[in-house]
Structure formats: structure tokens, C-alpha cells
Amino acid sequence: MNLLRTLLDGQRLKRAFYQLVTFVLLLDVAFIFLLPLLRLASTAMMSPTDQHDPTVVWLPHEIHIENFVRAIAALDYWQALRNTMLVALAAAALQTISAAVVGYGFARLKFPGRDALFGLVLFSLIVPPQTIIIQLFVLYGKLDWLDGYLPFLVPSAMGMGLRGALFIFIFRQFFKGMPYELEDAAYIDGASPLRVFLSIMLPLAQPAILVVFLFSFVWHWNDNFEPSIYLTNPDKFFLPQHLNNLEAMMRALHMLLTGNTGAIMAASLLTFLPLLVIYLFARRYFVESIERTGLVG
Fold it and tell me: What is the rounded CA–CA span in Å between residue 214 and residue 222?
């Protein structure tokens, strides 16, 4: 009895030790990722005096709201936020729907050349968008889509757009792992492949839908390369574009103070703050969906 109790105590100590080591490692990793964010938020609230005061490390003597006022004005924040939110939401929704349809076709339907076509999809993953941007620019120019949002929405609706091949791959792997008995029972009842997809497979694909939608939304939100090519009207710019031109805009508005980086940090914070808020509300469902889609492990 004493031996058994000793063994149990030893196992508890070993388990507690492993948990402590894991906690310390996770804390270190979290600190590495959070340190730039905390420094960004701290500098955004500092006045120029606090920024040059060696006694001020993290907390300013007073919160300098003027940095955020300058940042909002220079970014044309509310207009840019509306543009970014609407296009990112629409593109993510269209891309999720189209990638689900294409991924289901590759996973469950048999047709000539299926594997070859899927190989081309995977090949497109390694093709940088910079290599085809000239051809796309010429094509969209002929279609009179430049200086508008169609270059972001139409490719997304066609299963393309930002990381479209990756999203097709995610859906294909998810649908491929589902039991075929679900479809067989529906086919016996006379359901068509489209009805099976809409009524049976798609409701079961909620984890993959959430993962793809959030990834697509974040990537469209943060993208600065393609919008800088296709958009020239400042009224249609997204937040990353305004952030990229922030210094020039602040000079034009006579807001750039020598040695004051607080307004620039405030603008950076305001740009990704909506994404942070969305993640705080969706993190639980996002992590669960990541695990159920098999992207980790």
C-alpha cells in the first residue's frame, strides 16, 4: 500500500513538473509575440516628451490622445475602415463558398482529369502573385475593373483570389475524410449531388467554413500589394494603403512632428485593432475548428 502511494505521488510530481515546464515555455512564447504589441500600444499613448524621457519605459505620465486624433485624420479612418470591412467580408464570403464547392468536387466527385486539375491547384500555391500581376493588371484594365473592387471580388467568387488554392485544399481534405455512407443514403433517397452537398455535406463542414472564412478575411484585410496596384482613388483605399502612405499624408496635413512616432504607432494600432476584437470573440470557435479540420497535429 505504501509502495502504491509512493508511485502515485511520483506520478503526480512528474505530471506537475511537465505542466510547469509547458506553462513556462508557453509564457515565453507568448511574451515574444506580445512584446511588440505591448510596445506599440505603449508608444501610441506617449507624448513626444514621454518618448524622449529615459524614465518612461512602459507607462506614460499621461495618455496623449492627440496621437489617435492625428492618426484618425491622416488615415481617413472611418472611410477606410468601411471600405476595408466591406470588401474583406464580401471577398471572404465569396471565397469560402467557391472554395467549398470546388473542394467538394475534388474530394467526392469522379471526373476525367480530376487528379491533374488538383495538381495544378496545388502548383498555384507556389506561384507568387507578383509573377502574374502584370498580366492581371492588363486583363482587368481591358475589363475596365481598375480603380474598383471587382479585382478582389470576382476572383474570390471563382475560387481564386488570395490563397484560393490553400482554401480549396482545406475543403478537399475535410470532405475527403467524411464517411461515404452519408452520400450513399442520400443517393438512395433520390437526392442529386447538389442536394447532397447543400443539405448534408455543407452543414457538417462548419469547422472548415469558419477556418477558411477567418483566414480569408484576415488576409484580405492585411493585403497591401494588390490594392496598391489596382486602386488609385484615395477615397477607395483600404487601411493598409493609408498606413503605407501615412507619413506623406501627415506631412500634407502638417501633423508630423519631429521625433514623434506616437501618431504612427497609434495608426498602426488602429489598423489591426478590429482584427484583434474579432479574434477575442471568435478565438474559441477558431481553435476548435482548426483542430477538427486537421490543420494541426
Answer: 12
Among 170, 14, 153, 182, which residue's Cα sits nearest to residue 87? 153
- DSSP-based three-state secondary structure for 52: coil
The class of domain 76-244 in CATH terms is mainly alpha
**Domain regions of the chain by residue span:** 76-244
Distances, alpha carbon 103 to alpha carbons 74, 131, 181, 211, 216, in Å: 42, 25, 19, 14, 16
Q: Do residues 208 and 293 make contact, with C-beta atoms less than 8 angstroms apart?
A: yes
Beta strands in the chain (DSSP E): none
Q: How far apart are CA 289 and CA 295, in angstroms?
A: 9
The helix/strand/coil state of 189 is: coil
Cell (9 digits) for 30: 507568448
Q: What is the pLDDT of residues 135-187, one digit of tens each?
A: 999 999 999 999 999 999 999 999 888 888 899 999 998 888 888 887 888 88
Residue 34 C-alpha cell reads as: 506580445
Helices (H), 109-252: 114-124, 133-142, 150-157, 164-176, 181-188, 193-196, 202-204, 206-222, 225-230, 239-244, 246-252
